[in-house]
Amino acid sequence: MVDRELTVIIVNWNTKEMLKNCLFSLKEKSEFPNRSIIVVDNASTDGSREMIGSLFPEIHLINSGRNAGFAAANNIALQHSNSPYILFLNPDTVVLPGSIGKMLDVLHKNPSIGAVGCKMKDELGKVQTLGLQWFPSPFTELINLLFVSTHTIKYFKQYLPYKDPEVSGDVIKIFGGCFLVRKEVLDKVGCFDDRFFMYVEDVDLCKRIIENGWKIYYLSEAEIIHYCGTSSEKAGNSFSILMKCESIGKYMEKYYGKTGRLLYKIFVFTGSNLRLIYLSLLELSFFVFKANSIEKQIKMVRWSLNMEKAVVKQ
Question: Residue 72: pLDDT above 70?
Answer without folding.
Answer: yes
